[in-house]
Amino acid sequence: MHKRDLSLGSQTLSIETGRLAKQADGSVIVRLGDTMVLVTACHSSSPREGIDFLPLTVDYREYTYASGRIPGGFFKREGKATEKETLTSRVIDRPIRPLFPSGWAYETQVIAFVLSADTENDSDVLALTGAGAALALSEMPVEKTVAAVRVGLVDGEYIVNPTYPQRKTSRLDLVVAGTADGIVMVEAGANEVSEDEAIQALETAHKAIKQLVEMIDALAKEAGRKKLAKPEVKTDEKLAAYVESKAYASLGEAMRIKGKIENYGTVAKLEKELVANLPEEFAGSKAAVKGLFHDLQEKTLRDSILNKGIRLDGRKFDEIRQITIENTVLPRVHGSCVFTRGETQALVTVTLGTADDQQKIEMVDGETWKRFMLHYNFPPFSVGEVKPMRGPGRREIGHGALAERALAPMMPAEADFAYTVRVVSDILESNGSSSMASVCGGSMAMMDAGVPIKAAVAGVAMGLIMDEATGKYAVLSDIAGAEDHYGDMDFKVTGTAAGITALQMDIKVTGISSEVMRAALTQAKTGRMHILGIMNESLSATRTNMSAYAPRIITIKIPVDKIRDVIGPGGKMIRSIIEKTGVKIDVEDSGQVNVASADEAAALKAIGMIQELTQTAELDKTYLGKVQRITDFGAFIEIMPGTDGLLHVSEIAHYRVKDVRDELKEGQQVLVKVINIDPTGKIRLSRKALITPEEGGAPPAGSGDGAEGGAPAAPEGDRPPRDRGPRRDRGPRN
Questions:
Q1: What element of type H or E holds 533?
Q2: Alpha helices in 237-367 (DSSP H)
Q3: Does 614 score more than 60 pLDDT?
Q4: Which of 443, 607, 620, 644 is most buried when burial is the number of CB atoms within 10 A of its CB?
Q5: What pLDDT digit, counting tens, does each position of 121-140 carry?
Q6: What's the CA gap between 648 and 684, in Å, rounded?
Q7: Are 491 and 462 in contact, with CB atoms under 8 Å apart?
Q8: Largest CA distance in the chain
Q9: Residue 691 carries which DSSP code?
Q10: Which tens digit of pLDDT belongs to each residue from 305-346?
């Protein structure tokens, strides 16, 4: 067994190999605290023939045994990958995919198992670092070693691999993967951090990554396998020259056609004609010609940008495509928007629900609930294709998670807006940056639905064309499909006017320097502000009136000790209110009560019934009460449902009362004033405080002064009299 340790922040991260899964090509256990992840890397014994892509599969799994739990559900075992497992698999895949040499055709699989979860340290960055280590230890000829860290920003301090409690107070949740040379992948959510803060966080991350890479390389040197030779990629120079001579000029013209469908159709026609008209000497090289034609497309785009300073669609490097926005486009949904940027179009809708509609999330360390969710759909017609429509794939889940992360910081607190919010983005047309269209459209649709978001959010996808040999580069704003496909970077930045809310970056080059990152972030801010300006012109503030078809949720606060009164024995009381009004009622442990109904009048009626059950007596307030019971020393008056107080004989009138029954009858309504509420909740009432001495100064006929059972008159004013009644506890009736 071989093991290495590294201190990162306040904790120690360890990587060991040679103890578990020894038949894998490469295997490691990565540990931080009591969180442990086993990561393996394997490849097939022989390459696949006739493929022009990297056959890489990445799977990340969390098993509940890791935290000492049994999974929920009928079968009591893990099934389909959860959203976090899918997203983490993507996060691992993206930075390791560029590590493999061109022409690698062996089926390759990286698997990460969470073996132990301490509920303090997240396993995702450990799995990514483990993938880099497992590949470094294997015989696969990867180009570089990759590692990853998470960075938080708590009270102005950058923290490497923050714990879950630290992340709750952090303004930034940044996951960064990189090599010793630079950053290769970024995934972040943030609460309006500045560009400078983002750069500092990235630099902090890369400093830690370089330490991890150094440790992994030392471990690989000590315990790694001998690397296989890189596959030979031969290019027929004569054939390549022929393809360029025949297609370069016409291909440049075709790729400059504005419309995507016409552009792609013309390019496809050129390729078909080129293959069909091959001379006899190249007749057996049709597959090679297609590959060379693809390479020529990339060369055309890169030459135009780097050498001529012109984008194929004629835009400037920092120019955003034309934007149109349509709000309230669907009559029955609660909020809607069609956001179109260039040839990318998103139909985004918002549905408002109650607490019953929150999504339950089962994770390795327990269950959580989500009241805000965003789902992204990419139907095949959006790119003019025909494909079967099944459940969401990794791409849909990933794009939806990014857009959700961008908008989530702007959601109002539940105490201020008790609704569950679901946003759905259906991509109707796609030519680059559909996830960013989902962010912009999602922000507009939420405002259209009456969700009081803190600020509008916009997103822009940044691209990069770089010549690594010379260091020459160009940063592109709002990249289209071809610029994404043939470019070196896809860097998505979302935020408000005040700061960044989400980041996502993938690159195809060996690494990105701080200089390039800063240039991209600065240019992204300019683009974001431009888009926010257009969004503001379309809808400048959240609508005050909700859709007539949206549920109305009215929230009130009741004393915690009154919750039982609202619920009633066995839920009898709350069921009665629901049956009478048809509303939904959610009572929280804090005493917050949410009443939801499409009928506002019904909701108000239910609120009134709850308030009757939970109202409490107020000092110096007058009530029209009902005499419940008469005793020798006074009467008990019900001043509200379930609440009564003592009207002492001395507080009935300004004269001495011989017999309470001469003044009051059971069932009689009488005005009384609350003159005292003691710490135990006992209520003292006064009738005479509401009567002037002139009105009530003389006793009725037949009453006598000082008669047995009478009581001396109390001094005038609101000072509570002495209780001379029987010594027994008498609290408010329930």
A1: helix 514-538
A2: 237-255, 260-276, 286-306
A3: yes
A4: 443
A5: 999 999 999 999 999 999 99
A6: 8
A7: yes
A8: 134
A9: S
A10: 999 999 999 999 999 999 999 999 999 999 999 999 999 999
Q: What are phi and psi of 542, to 5 degrees?
A: -65, 135
Whether residue 422 contacts residue 373, with contact meaning beta carbons closer than 8 Å, is answered with: yes
Residue 283 above 90 pLDDT? no
One-letter amino acid for residue 588 of the chain: E
Q: For 537, phi and psi rounded to 5 degrees?
A: -65, -35
Pairing of β 147-154 and β 56-62: unpaired
**pLDDT attached to residue 701:** 53
Nearest CA to 138 out of 177, 99, 105 is that of: 99
Residue 697: per-residue pLDDT: 59
pLDDT band at 234 (very low <50, low <70, confident <90, very high): confident
Return d(Cα 505, Cα 518) in angstroms, integer: 13
Residue 194: Cβ-neighbour burial (10 angstroms; 0-12, 13-18, 19+): middle
CB contact at 8 A, 192 and 498: yes
Find out whether 717 and 676 touch, Cβ atoms under 8 Å. Answer: no
**H or E, element range at 326:** strand 323-327
Contact present, 220 and 145 (Cβ < 8 Å): yes
The rounded mean pLDDT for the chain is 90
pLDDT digits (tens, 9 = 90+) for 100-125: 998 899 999 999 999 999 989 999 99
Radius of gyration, alpha carbons of the chain = 36
Given a cut of 90, whether residue 77 has pLDDT beyond it is no
Average pLDDT over residues 529-553: 94
- In terms of Cβ atoms closer than 10 Å to its own Cβ (0-12, 13-18, 19+), residue 620 is exposed
Q: Of 349, 375, 355, 335, which is closest to residue 420 (Cα–Cα)?
A: 355
Distance CA 324, CA 554 (A): 35
Closest CA to 40 of 113, 107, 147, 100: 113
Q: Which of 39-53, 199-213, 288-302, 545-559 has the highest mean pLDDT?
A: 199-213
* Residue 708 in this model has a pLDDT that exceeds 60: no
What number is the average pLDDT over the span 532-542? 97
Q: DSSP label at 450?
A: T
Domains of the chain and CATH, by start = 2-223 (3.30.230.70), 237-306 (1.10.10.400), 323-538 (3.30.230.70), 552-614 (3.30.1370.10), 617-734 (2.40.50.140)
Burial, 374: exposed, middle or buried (Cβ in 10 Å; 0-12, 13-18, 19+)? buried
CA nearest to 671, candidates 695, 643, 652: 652
End-to-end CA distance of the chain: 69
Quick one: pLDDT at residue 191? 96
Burial of 306: CB neighbours in 10 Å, binned 0-12, 13-18, 19+: middle
